[in-house]
Amino acid sequence: MTNVTINQEVRLSEHFKLAELCKTSVRTADGNIPSHAAIENLKRLCGWLEMLRSEWNKRYGDGDDPIIINSGYRSAQVNKAVGGVATSNHLTGCAVDIRVLGMEQLLRYAVILLDISDELQEDFDELLMERNAKGTYWLHFAVRPEGNRRKIRLITC
Questions:
Q1: Which helix (DSSP H) or strand (DSSP E) does residue 98 occupy?
Q2: What is the rounded average pLDDT of the residues 3-13?
Q3: Which residues pair with 140 in a beta bridge?
Q4: How far is CA 145 from the centre of its chain?
Q5: Are 99 and 70 spatial neighbours (Cβ–Cβ below 8 Å)?
Q6: In which element (H, E) is residue 105 found?
């Protein structure tokens, strides 16, 4: 079996690299390598992330605050290992989980993404504000090539 790896330097947008959107601590035989279609979806998603980053830095940041990705593309093996649902947008490169520093940043990110959606008159698929039992917050954001549902939820475990 040949090991396939991701070129760490491939850029999806100005501030986001393919490796960042495919990182995982789960070891799988497939190496968590996205298809060409998934890479195109990740590029579309990174367009939104670039707008989020820019607007966050205009409104609240220090001018160059990064957006930190916890999880982006997931192969079927990785998705299963982390307990993801079989229909997850992560499987097609249409979703990211974004690290936040707490509830306030979570809400501000969500508002910015809603503002962007309204301004562009483009829908997203999912905007899920999530918290686990340990009290850690993150924002799940997904954009599909078509059929976006504008699903907005607050989810606590």
A1: strand 95-99
A2: 77
A3: 97, 128
A4: 15
A5: yes
A6: helix 103-120
